[in-house]
Structures are given as structure tokens and as C-alpha cells.
Amino acid sequence: MIIAIDIRSLSGGAYTGVGEYTRNLLQHLIPAHSDIEFKLFFNAHSEKPNLDFLGAIPNAKLYHFRYPNKYFSAATRFLNVPKLDRMVGGADVFFSPHFIATPTTASCRKVITFHDLSFERYPEFFDRRRKFWHFSNNPKKQAQMASEIIAVSESTAYDLTDLYGVDAKKIHVVYSGVRKEFFREISQEEMSHVKGKYRLPDCFILSVSTIEPRKNVLGIIKAFEIFKECPDVKAIYFLSRIYRRRGQAGSV
Questions:
Q1: CA gap 122, 100 in Å, rounded
Q2: Which domains does the chain have, with CATH numbers?
Q3: pLDDT digit string (tens) for 99-138?
Q4: In what order do the strands lie in the sheet with 37-43?
Q5: The whole model's pTM is what?
Q6: Distance, CA of 227 to CA of 213 (rounded, Å)
Q7: CA distances from 207 to 15, 109, 126, 191, 223 (A)
Q8: Quick one: DSSP state of residue 186?
Q9: I need a surface site. Which of 52, 102, 111, 221 has the fewest CB within 10 A?
């Protein structure tokens, strides 16, 4: 079997949720299935994905195309071309870890992961640019035409049937995994180092997210207002994108 995977979410270096999902899935899925040939699709004019985390794996090959994303994305979203499975030399299944437009031939089965439909439930949290992005990728049509769908929660699975009328039989709830690093025991020396580096108090509130209305940062601030009567509590807003690029943290 040949499985093609869209890894465009690994561009940019600072991964958001979908990028982390893709990276960790590749790291565990590919070595676990040595009998399957994996073709990794990537397109960027000047960037290339860092796949060092995969190591030397003989059953995976990168197919890197260098078309300008502005024109390539317009073609895939509005013209339904080019067929990505043909671009990588053919595949039995094309897997998309997000609902970015991925045109494929009729003979290639398509599997898509939907992380949430918050943009449908709460459109007021998205600006015009993000709304256009969702509109142009047409997630409803993609969900209805997909061979199988992975939903990362029961809530997302329900939204897919309730909002898009997707057949529940082709929706599979697969919860996102947890990296083994999160189970590593942290030494007292390491904790003291991090505490000193970021001038952390003994008690604090940690929020890991980008600054977007849909992340409910305002709700965190309101919760802190209620909780702040405890004199030992301070809030630390740890912005993942800024931290990864600049190594900075802001405190309130």
C-alpha cells in the first residue's frame, strides 16, 4: 500500500497545533508500518521541511515541490487542480492532517483529520482573512467527499454530522496522543533553572496558546481576576509562537 501525506503544516519552523499533530503522527506512524510506502507531499517556493526527527527511514520519501504558494493554493482551492496523488507518482490513500484543499483523483481514497469546527460554531471569533481562508478551502465539501474522517474529539464528530450532514459511519474519533517527553521526570535542578530563567513565582497560571479570540484569553484573564485574591498567585501568559521564535515570556 502507498499512503501520501500532506505535510505542508510543517513549514515555517514554529509549529502550531496542526504542525505538532503532523510531526508526532509521522514520527510514530511511519516506523510502525514498515510494509507501507509513505510519500510526504510538501510545497513551498523557498522553504523546506525539517524532517530530522524521522531519522533514516527507508519506507518514507519526501516529494518537495517549489511552486509559489499563492498561485498553488488558488489552483487547489478554486480549480481543484493539480491532483496531488499524481504529483507524487500515485497513491492508494491521501491523508490530510487538516482540511487544507488537497485535490486527488477519483481512484485515490482520501482521509482527513478535523480538529474542530469552531469557525462554524463561533464565526465572531474569526477575522475576515481567516473566514475567507475557511471559505476558500470549503471544509464542508471536503468532509462530505472524504472516504474516511478522523475527528480528534466526540464534540468534533458531533459537529461534522450536525453541521455538515456527514455520515457518522465514516467518522472515527481518534484522540491526539501525548509525546513521551511529557512523562519525563524533571529534576529539581532543571526546575530551579527554568524558574530562575523566567523569574517564575511558586504559584502561577500557565496558558499555552497563540493570541486569538477563539483561544479565550479573555476568559483566562477574567478567571485570574476572580482567583487573584490569593497573594501567592501570579499569571504567566506563555505565548508559544513568540517563545519558540524569540525565547520570551510575558508576565502579568
A1: 20
A2: 2-173 (3.40.50.2000), 186-251 (no CATH)
A3: 999 999 999 999 999 999 999 999 998 889 999 999 999 9
A4: 60-65, 37-43, 2-6, 93-96, 109-114, 148-151, 171-173
A5: 0.82
A6: 21
A7: 17, 38, 20, 18, 12
A8: P
A9: 52
